[in-house]
Write a structure and sequence with these properties.
Blueprint: H1 4-29, H2 34-81, E1 85-90, E2 95-98, H3 100-106, H4 110-113, H5 128-139, E3 145-152, E4 158-169, E5 175-184, H6 186-204, E6 208-213, E7 218-221, H7 223-229, H8 233-236, H9 251-264, E8 266-274, E9 280-291, E10 297-306, H10 308-322, H11 332-349, E11 352-361, H12 363-370, H13 372-388, E12 395-400, E13 403-411, H14 414-429, E14 432-434, E15 437-439, E16 442-450, H15 457-473, E17 478-481, H16 485-506, E18 509-518, E19 524-535, E20 539-541, H17 543-553, H18 555-576, E21 584-588, H19 590-593, H20 598-608, E22 616-621, H21 622-626, H22 629-642, E23 645-651, H23 658-663, E24 668-671, H24 673-676, H25 683-698, E25 703-706, H26 711-720, E26 724-726, H27 736-745
Parallel strand pairs: 16-17, 19-21, 21-22, 22-23, 23-24, 24-25, 25-26
Antiparallel strand pairs: 1-2, 1-5, 3-4, 4-5, 6-7, 6-10, 8-9, 9-10, 11-13, 11-16, 12-13, 14-15, 18-19, 18-26, 19-20
Helix pairs in contact: 1-2, 12-13, 15-16, 16-17, 17-18, 18-20
The structure holds ligand C2E and magnesium ion (MG) (2 copies).
Length: 750
């Protein structure tokens, strides 16, 4: 009874009943008159007591009502404020209570669902059967029952609810209410699924995972960790990850790692670790701190994978980029880098640096004749020899082909450099045997010095290169120091090469002829064809100036072909003009000699001009023959079969092996003109020439002396038993028209 006005009305009614009631009782019992006053007083008292009693009764009633109401309100509030969903159904399963959590989860208000059949509401179709079964069990007296079903929310979403259902019965056991308490476990379930997923990743990932506590004690490791490190979980749990430390990093490395970990909560990088079997491996590792609710790190998760192989490949690639694949020496890139560093250091310390440019002599011949395998072996051997004759601090690089560069750091004088270079050359020229072939090469070395010849990498390399060309032109293994004029020469050489290509196309080459004379009869025995370049800009260029360039560039093959065919053409022309012919010898360079088609080419040239055997001869330098004596045998035989006579030119300048010479089908030896010069006055030369003539006789080979310039030399040669001579003493090489005079007369004039 909440209304106070209603309460007073009740009091009044009770008083109105009690007053007449008391009055009646009193009037019946009390005598009139004298007792009237007393009776009236009594009546009044009775009325008061009656009213008071009624009021007290009413008050009591009111209090219990209030308490009941409060309790009801309290439980209502309790139900509404409960975090869990509460749904109360009556015995017919109609909704009678639907708390706020239920409203919130379902998206429906209590007003919407009150009185509705529970079946028609919210239950996901797939759960309907289960829910009905649960209600059947509840009805049968089983309580409480826990299970999970889905609710379909007002917006069509689905929530998974974990229910505890109870049944409320009356005294006779009849179902009065069904109470359902539920918790929305949708998120929890997905969290659990995520945790399961994480655990599965942890187990199955190919990367090693280590979890430690904040004190870096290992709490768990995954199977990949065991596979990678060889340690099983029991062997590492509770221990510090330093168990797999490689010892390759210094203290600072680990200090930096911890600084980063504690600062940013993360560290990542490459780290060398050690397996149980002692082998070290490179890992790419990420360590992250996991923070608790207060923000403090309470776990470290370290994930790493083995990148040793990648690292090795990487190193290989880097090595390949900076090294020559064949010899393993630094390549041009690394050389430039080292030289630049060396120059910086030299500038700081005021020291000198030597740059040596080394080019092998006759390498191309070996490579072309014996094959690239042998060529490669030769380069490797030369690289080894150069390397072993230098200090560790010096740099040897291969630029490609047969070009090597050496950087001598911290040198004191040019004579010290010269000494090193002499030692180097001596090593390189030592004979070697490659695949059973005796092989010998020479080396031409150009030297540029820092600071006098240049202050940067480019100018020093250029200078050494130019000096090397000078050394090469001088012939034989030797070295040259750079001087300023060489730059000019290097440029000139390039121009010469370009012009020479054009000379061929424009027909600027000529053959001159120089007689070979029988000293006793003075009759012409034969002639040598010598090339000249009639250049419109340079005038007559001598072979010494352009044949080396032609040999280096390979142009010599084309030039050589032209020489052979031109000599044949000329011979045929003289023959057709009715001139008395002598055999004409053409010079064949080493590069041409190794051409397996040489004999074929000569045969074709002779054929096309209808020349018979014996008309054309060839001259081969001693070194061309000796580069590969084995190959020379076959080649010479083919020439011999063609009826082509072969003379060994410049004899005495090379590295001839007498035993080989004897085995070769050669027809004569031409003593180099350096030995003939001053023969009459120079006892050394006289001795050499005498020895060569003696050798010729011993192996049955005629000896021709070239470069005979005067009668004294001629006389001396004759004395020594030399029968044939060639030289300015008789005539210089002549253009064809002038030479025809010789053909016509057949004898030397003087
Ligand atoms: P070589 O085959 O030894 O030729 C002899 C060289 O000595 C020639 O020089 C010739 O002119 C020179 N000479 C001859 N008599 C005397 C003399 O009394 N005193 C002096 N000081 N020199 C004399 P040239 O014509 O300048 O040729 C030089 C070299 O060039 C030749 O030496 C030969 O190796 C090469 N050569 C010339 N023509 C050809 C050619 O057509 N093909 C090839 N591959 N090389 C050639
Ligand atoms: Mg010659
Ligand atoms: Mg010669």
């Amino acid at each position: 009874m909440p209304n106070p006005r209603l309460r007073y009305r009740l009091y009044l009614i009770l008083a109105l009943i009690a007053v007449p009631l008391g009055l009646g009782v009193v009037l019946a019992r009390v005598p009139s008159d004298a007792r009237l006053a007393g009776r009236l007083l009594f009546v009044a008292i009775a009325m008061g007591v009656g009213g008071g009693l009624g009021g007290a009764l009413i008050n009591q009633l009111d209090k219990s009502h209030r308490e009941l109401r409060e309790r009801h309100r309290f439980s209502e509030a309790l139900i509404d404020n409960m975090a869990s969903i509460t749904v109360v159904l009556d015995a017919a399963c109609n909704v009678v209570r639907f708390n706020r959590a239920a409203e919130h989860t379902s998206g429906r208000s209590e007003a919407q669902v009150i009185g509705q059949a529970y079946w028609s509401l919210m239950i996901a179709e797939e759960d309907l059967a289960e829910v009905q079964a649960v209600f059947a069990r509840l009805t049968a007296g089983e309580t409480p029952i826990q299970h999970e079903t889905h609710w379909v929310t007002a917006s069509g979403g689905k929530r998974l609810i974990r229910w505890t259902r109870t049944v409320v019965t009356d005294e006779r056991g009849k179902v009065r209410y069904f109470i359902a308490n539920g918790i929305d476990v949708t998120e929890q379930k997905s969290d659990e699924a995520e945790l399961r997923l994480a655990a599965s990743v942890f187990r199955n990932t190919s990367e090693a995972v280590v979890v430690t506590d904040a004190q870096a004690r290992i709490l768990s490791v995954n199977p990949a960790f065991t596979e990678l490190t060889g340690y099983t979980a029991p062997e590492v749990l509770g221990r510090n990850p330093r168990q797999i430390k490689s010892g390759r990093h210094d203290r600072k490395f680990y200090q930096d790692m911890w600084t980063s970990l504690l600062g940013t909560g993360e560290w990542r990088g490459e780290i060398w670790n050690r397996r149980k079997d002692g082998e070290t491996f490179l890992a790419w590792q990420t360590i992250s701190g996991v923070r608790d609710d207060t923000g403090a790190i309470f776990r470290f998760v370290s994930v790493f994978s083995d990148i040793t192989e990648l690292h090795v490949k990487d190193e290989q690639l880097r090595h390949q980029a900076y090294h020559d694949a064949l010899t393993g020496l630094p390549n041009r890139l690394l050389l430039q880098d080292r030289l630049a560093q060396g120059l910086e250091a030299a500038k700081r310390h005021g020291t000198a640096v030597g740059v040596l440019f080394i080019d092998l002599d006759r390498f191309k011949v070996v490579n072309d004749s014996l094959g690239h395998d042998v060529g490669d072996m030769l380069l490797v051997e030369v690289a080894r020899r150069i390397h072993s004759s230098l200090r560790r601090s010096d740099t040897v690089a291969r630029l490609g082909g047969d070009e090597f560069v050496v950087v001598l750091h911290d040198v004191s004088s040019s004579s010290e450099v010269a000494e090193v270079v002499e030692k180097l050359i001596a090593q390189i020229v030592k004979p070697m045997v490659l695949q059973d072939h005796p092989v010998q090469v020479g080396a031409s070395v150009g030297i540029a010095l820092f600071p006098q010849d240049g202050s940067d990498v480019t100018s020093l390399m250029k200078g050494a290169d130019a000096a090397m060309y000078q050394a090469k032109t001088a012939g034989r293994s030797g070295f040259r120091f750079f001087d300023a004029s060489m730059n000019h020469q290097a440029v000139e050489r390039l121009r010469l090469e370009m012009d020479l290509r054009q000379a061929l196309e424009r027909g600027e080459l000529r053959l001159y002829y120089q007689p070979k004379v029988d000293i006793r009869t003075r009759r012409m025995q034969g002639a040598e064809a010598l090339i000249r370049w009639h250049s419109p800009t340079r005038g007559i260029v001598m072979p010494g100036q352009f044949i080396p360039v032609a040999e280096e560039t390979g142009l010599i093959v084309t030039i050589g072909d032209w020489v052979i065919s031109e000599a044949c053409r000329q011979l045929a022309q003289w023959r057709d003009a009715g001139k008395p012919l002598v055999p004409v010898a053409v010079n064949v360079s080493a590069r041409q000699f190794i051409d397996p088609r040489l004999a074929e080419k000569i045969a074709a040239a002779m054929d096309s001009h209808g020349l018979s055997a014996g008309r054309l001869e060839i001259e081969l330098t001693e070194s061309a023959v000796m580069t590969d004596p084995e190959l020379a045998v076959g080649q010479l035989r083919r020439l011999q079969d063609l009826g082509v006579t072969v003379h060994v030119d410049d004899f005495g300048t090379g590295y001839s092996s007498l035993s080989y010479l004897k085995r070769l089908p050669l027809d004569s030896i031409k003593v180099d003109r350096t030995f003939v010069q001053g023969l009459d006055r120079d006892p050394d030369n006289a001795a050499i020439v005498r020895a060569i003539i003696g050798l010729g006789k011993a192996i049955g080979m005629p000896v021709v002396a070239e470069g005979v310039e005067n009668g004294d030399e001629e006389a001396r040669l004759f004395e020594e038993g030399c029968a044939t001579a060639q030289g300015y003493h008789y005539t210089e090489p002549l253009p064809p028209e002038a030479f025809e005079v010789w053909l016509d007369s057949g004898t030397a004039c003087s």
